[in-house]
Amino acid sequence: MKKRIYKKRIIVILVTLLMSNVISCQYDLDNPVDPEAASYIGTESIDEDGDGLGSYYDVDEISLSSPEDAEKIEIINPTLVITAMDDDRVTTYWIQISTTISFSNIVFEKNSYSSNSCYIPTGYLTDFNTYYWRAKAYDSTTNEWSSSWSETWNFSVTEITITPANGANIYTSTSSQLGRY
């Protein structure tokens, strides 16, 4: 009889504490979709690369950020920006840039970027061309590269127009010869 009374009292106390928000049964989880939200219940975790892991648990779920897909840019040395689902586990990025969507003509490749901002030095890209780019992430926990490449985006380098100020000398390397204008 005493056990039944104690159980009822414990239940009443727990219900009272739960209703007064003194204790909670809900976990505080970071919401990767909306960081300001309290939780992400009901938000689907999508397996974008087909490896069986949803994006909330998959370090190699990365997305390209900049330049945006099909963007026209006016510089031949852009900075490519990548977003990883888990920045703490990604230690290195592998970038490829090609003039073909099949990546049969790679004009720039580097697999040792330790930052998600990847500067492309002058000399690899020229104006009046469309370039395709993709990336992979290195998972410091498993010590492996992601199983597949990110989606492929493209950007076009348009004509680079330079307006000299006060008769300054302008040099171009995109014509057949270096010239002084």
Q: What is the helix tally?
A: 1
Give the end-to-end Cα distance, rounded to a whole number of Å.
Answer: 101 Å
Percentage of residues in strands: 25-35%
Rg over CA atoms:
26 Å
CATH architecture tag of the domain at 62-163 = Sandwich
Q: How helical, in percent, are the residues?
A: under 10%
Q: Structural class of the secondary structure composition?
A: mainly beta
Model description:
This protein has a domain at 62-163: Immunoglobulin-like (Sandwich), CATH 2.60.40. It is elongated, with a radius of gyration of 26 Å. The protein is 10% helix and 31% strand. By secondary structure, it is mostly beta strands. Strands 2, 4, 5, 7, 8 and 9 form a six-stranded mixed β-sheet that branches.
Overview in brief:
By secondary structure, this protein is mainly beta. It has one helix and eleven strands; from the N terminus they run H-E-E-E-E-E-E-E-E-E-E-E. The chain has a domain at 62-163: Immunoglobulins (Immunoglobulin-like), CATH 2.60.40.10.
